[in-house]
Amino acid sequence: MPRPSYKQIAHNDFEEAIDVLLTQEADLMTLASGFWLEQHWKVEWMTTMLAVSAYSEWERFIENLIYAHLCHDTSQLAATLGLNLPRKMSRDICEAMLTSRGYLEFRSTSDLIGYCRRWLVSSPFDLLTAAQRQSIDQLRLLRNHIVHKSRHSETTP
Q1: How many CB atoms lie within 10 A of CB 87?
Q2: pLDDT tens sequence across 99-145
Q3: From CA 149, how far away is CA 23, in angstroms rounded?
Q4: CA separation for the pair 135, 34 (Å, rounded)
Q5: What is the pTM of this model?
Q6: Cβ 15 vs Cβ 51: under 8 Å
């Protein structure tokens, strides 16, 4: 059996993580309609954690997918940076090149797509529909509001 590619591993890991979240959501709904019916704060807390977890899994997935695409062909990144790089590099080296100054952070799907067009020969994020992009952006805003509870996160559309 052939070894799975980094892209396949990223997809499989993301699907497994989402399956776990869906199971947790189903369990929560069962508890919310029965055992926790009078304890709304528990339901609210669990739903906020599910939202944070969902966006965290998305972030992990996009990072893994970026590294997987980059290690296959670094020519776009080399052109963007004006460097002479080997066409193929290890996933670890590709991750180090992009995170040597800190972690990857994208403020929106438009930001993600823009960076990936500069780094990757073929960006998988160009395939996101407008509705998908809007949902992801809204989930990010919700996550930021939950985690930071700042006035800015309350007023950001």
Answers
A1: 10
A2: 988 899 999 999 999 999 999 999 999 999 999 999 999 999 989 88
A3: 27
A4: 30
A5: 0.83
A6: no
Greatest alpha-carbon pair distance for the chain in Å reads 63
Residue 113's Cα: distance from chain center in Å? 12
CA 62, 66, 70: angle at the middle one, nearest 5? 175
| Closest CA relative to residue 87, chosen from 70, 75, 95 | 75
Domain positions in the chain: 6-149
pLDDT at 157 over 80: no
The stretches of the chain forming alpha helices (DSSP H) are: 6-32, 40-72, 75-81, 91-99, 109-119, 130-148, 151-155
Q: In the numeric block, which tokens belong to residue 133? A: 């992009």
Asked whether the beta carbons of 116 and 66 are under 8 A apart, the reply is yes
CA distances from 35 to 39, 79, 95 (A): 8, 58, 45
